[in-house]
Each structure stands twice: as structure tokens, then as C-alpha cells.
Amino acid sequence: KEKGLFIQCYQNRRFDSDFLTVQKVIESGKLGDILEVEMHYDYFRPEVPENTHEFSTANSYLYGHACHTVDQVLSYFGEPDDIRYDVRQLLGKGRMNDYFDLDFFYGNMKISIKSSYFRIKERPSFVVYGKKGMFVKQTKDRQEEHLKMFYMPDHEDFGIDLPEHYGVLTYIDEQGDYHEEKVISEVGDYSRVYEGIYETLVNGAEKVIKDEETILQMKILEEGIKGIQESENKR
Known about the structure:
This protein is an alpha+beta fold.
């Protein structure tokens, strides 16, 4: 600020299709009061932790991946009342952090973010439980999938979910009738990060990724990895 420079974290996952679709479902009110949200981002890449023979905070799974899911939580639900951390080295001390499970509490609502390198079958990307029903989005946003195939955003169907990717909403309506229906996915769009930067620099709009959100997230990640750091320092 003193030098008049602009800096902002690249939190593109705020604009993932699955995350935007979850917001649409919550805001529809069909689930009633939200009780619990589970967010999963899993891999089956055992070779990564198996070939890593030292612990590094900078290369931890928490720092590398929770930075996205924690940001999703903070950007939509705000600062939590409390957080519980379960951050592990599944292969033992002296090895990389390859697992995390964080619970964020907002009154009676719990938001859980869970990730592991050892999930041969991925858990649903999102599961949302409310007093009137639940929503399950099995598959993740497809933008990264398409980018890795060099299928660029200039294609009209870039990142677009097909019907088989749609999440399933199950609920009881106000008349007591049971419903189970697919929800058309929202369109993910990472370019919204750059559009936000433009609006801030040119038109003076508020940052899309606010400084206080970034600082809070950094504190959460530092607190989450602290237990492993202390354990490693005792070796």
C-alpha cells in the first residue's frame, strides 16, 4: 500500500463449478437450515508420499491443497467460531504431510474439508446436509481437466459439466412430498479472478479476494501444520 502496488492471491477455486453449484442449492432454500457440509479433494497418488523422505512445511499437502478449500470455506461462510485440526503423516514421522481433515464450526453448523493421497476411489466432491434433505455433487469442476488436455477456454463447452456430472438433490418439500432430482451445474470460470483484478485496478472496486481473508487463511494453515512441526523438531 505504501508503494501503491497491487497484490492478491490467485484463489481461482472460488469459481469452481461444483462450489458455485453448492451455493446455488443452499440459497434455493430446499435443504432448509444447513447442518453439515463435507468437502473432499482426494487423490490416489501413493508414489508421491512414498518417494518423499523428509518433512517440508512448504511442500505439505495442507499448504498445497487446503489453501484452496479453506479459501472456499472462508469466502462463503466467513470466519468460523472454532476449528479442529487433524493433519497427519500417514507414512510416519519424517515423511510428508499427506492427509488433512479440518472441521470449521459456525454455531450448530459444521463444514469439513478432507483430503488424502491414498483414496483409490474418490469421495464426493461435496455433500451438503440440511434439515429438509441433502445434496451430493460427486464430480469436481472440469476446467483443470480440460486445461491439461489443452482444450482452451475459447471453446463454448470448456469446463462444462455433462448431465452425468450433475449433482443429486434429495429433499422433502413444504407439502411433505419427497423429491430426488438432478441439478444442472453452474458454469465455472477462473477468468473471474482476472475480471475482478481489472475492476479493482481500473474502477476502484473492492478486491475479489480480500486481504483479511488471505491473512486469516494463512493463520489457519500455520496453526494446522504446527503439530507436525513440533513433532518433527523433537526427533
